[in-house]
C-alpha cells in the first residue's frame, strides 16, 4: 500500500499533533540508532515538544559532553564562552548594586 504525500504544515488538532509528534520522534530516534550502528556515527538529538517535554537521544558509545566537546573542537568555537561572559558581567553588576546598597544602609 503506497502512502500519499502530505502537505507539510502545522497540525491544528492538538491530539493529532501530539500523536504525530510522538510517532515521528520515535521514527527519528530509530533512524539515529540505525546510523549509529551501521556507520559507527556519534549522534545526539535534543527535542522539546510544544508542551515543553524534553526528549533526547545520544549514541551509546559516547556522552553528550564528549560530543559537544568534539563539536566545539571541530568548529573551533567555544559555545559556552559567550554565556559565561554574560553571567560574569551580570555578577559584576550585582556586586556593584550590592556594594551601593550596603553604603546606603550605613
Automatic annotation (TrEMBL):
CDD domains: MADS_MEF2_like (cd00265). PROSITE patterns: MADS_BOX_1 (PS00350), MADS_BOX_2 (PS50066). Keywords: DNA-binding, Nucleus, Transcription, Transcription regulation. One of its GO terms (molecular function) is protein dimerization activity. It is found in: Nucleus. InterPro entries: MADS-box/MEF2_TF, MEF2-like_N, TF_MADSbox, TF_MADSbox_sf. GO terms for cellular component: nucleus. It comes from the Eukaryota. Its main location: nucleus. GO terms for biological process: positive regulation of transcription by RNA polymerase II. Residues 1-61 form the MADS-box domain. PANTHER family: SERUM RESPONSE FACTOR HOMOLOG. This is MADS-box domain-containing protein. The lineage of its organism: Eukaryota, Viridiplantae, Streptophyta, Embryophyta, Tracheophyta.
